[in-house]
Request: fold
Amino acid sequence: MKALLALIVLALLTGCSSLKLALKSAQGFYSELTKSKVVEMVSVDKANASKLKTSAYVNTLPPPSTKDLSESRTTPSATSTAAPTSPLDSGLFSPTKTLKVGSRGEAVLALEKRLAELHYDVGAADGFYDQQTWQGVVAFQKYAKLKRTGTFNLETQKALHVAMLPEGLHPELGLPRIEIDLTRQVLLFFDELGLNRVIAVSTGSNRKYCEISKKSGKRVCGVARTPRGKFRIQWRISGWRESDLGMLYNPLYFIDGIAIHGSPSVPANKVSHGCVRISMETSIWFYDTIKNGTPVIVFD
Reply:
């Protein structure tokens, strides 16, 4: 049954997804979906969409938080702290074998724990290099401006050994906030205490498109561009939503029809029609954590 469901979803998404990556990720995220809310098709109306009665734009910036950023939590993957001034790992560098999707063992577990320590979203630290581990490695490679392979190769190992916590570029928005760096293709989520997660994304490809809508059957044309600027999370839909250009999971809308949403395919490059794709696993906790009204800044 899981395999059948995976194929159905993949068939619906082939217009805007990488089939190869989607096939790799299907097994992992469907096991997580069984633990979350019921996935269902819904239309956009007042009965099932939670809306915020404010402008999408952040016209008046909130003041910076007065909370002590030295506070931290105990969960490694969700800790909020100020960025250190020196690398977290001061020991001698010792390279490991190249790790990739499918790898298992202590080396993978150490990698996952190290990335979680730096707030990259790797999911469960279980010693298995699955698609969510791949997403965490790619997010680190994107932020560190390395080649985006998703493989824990020697170059990535050296960079991770001396890495520090990522820093936001727009503290003027206060806390909490979401920063989407289009150049690096990463999303930084800051909660009330500071940096919470660093997430790999795939945004608008900036290409012109003309496609037949899977929803209306009409021809839809435009430019696949993610809007830049300062916005707020306005409204959301739980589960799957069918749009003119594909399927969105747990979308959080921040301007018109542009949303941060889960997708089975979040490649290392820009491929979307304009939305901000995040992994299916990430979209579950992201939807439950992010509140309407949270400032969002999108920049190059």
